[in-house]
Amino acid sequence: MRISRATLVLAISLVLAVSGCSKQIAGTAQPDPNQPPLALSEDGFGITAGFEDARTRIEIFTEPQCSHCAELQADFGDQLAYYIGIGALTVTYRPLTFLDDGSEGYSAHVSNAMFLVAEGDATGTQFQRFVQELYGHQERTKGGSGPSDDEMAEMAKAAGMPDEVADRIAGGGSAVNVKDMDDLNFGFLYDIDMLETGTPTVYDPANDEKVDIFDNGWLSKLMQS
Questions:
Q1: How confident is the model at residue 133 (pLDDT cuts 50, 70, 90)?
Q2: Residue 102: pLDDT above 90?
Q3: Which residues constitute the domain of residue 52?
Q4: Which CATH number belongs to the domain containing residue 160 in this structure?
Q5: 87 lies in some domain
Q6: Local structure of residue 60 (DSSP, 8 states)
Q7: Of 191, 186, 195, 187, nearest in space to 208 by CA
Q8: What's this model's pTM, rounded to 2 decimal places?
Q9: How far, in Å, are 46, 131, 156, 157, 159 from residue 109 at the CA level?
Q10: Is residue 17 part of a domain?
């Protein structure tokens, strides 16, 4: 029996209408290589979000209990995430813990969680969002207990991080020697500004200068320079 072209087209259309168009691919899903990476700095006490070849690089010295650091994230966090995401900016966060009352306080706990993220499969943009979550839920009372491991794990999920990263935070393991981190990062900060050694400090390594973050257009100007 001869089948007309019209009949054949109709038959194929009916099959597609019932089954849909699909293609099954075997294997494990891999991270998008176009996403900005997340890694430790060469000295091991900074967390770097963004591509190595980004045209602009900055270092942000930050203290998890510092209210001005929280204001920086509220005002510029979305812009930082945007520039990191498009590959134009690389940010190295250098946590400090000088507002802690002891060696295992609020800031040490949060800083350790930041380094736990760097051990997992998170992107640079997700890390920036995580920092915004941390500072957006900052306790305003100095010496407070700070967020729990489970609370920070939920913040990681809110930032879009995979479950394995959130689980790593919830587990509360040690990811960094906080004392050594604080000593090294404070030494860098002191070298940048011996008179006003505080947080937040944004440092431009290409020009070896402290950025004036009191200028509301500092980030836009830095990206255009």
A1: very high
A2: no
A3: 33-224
A4: 3.40.30.10
A5: yes
A6: E
A7: 191
A8: 0.84
A9: 15, 14, 15, 18, 19
A10: no
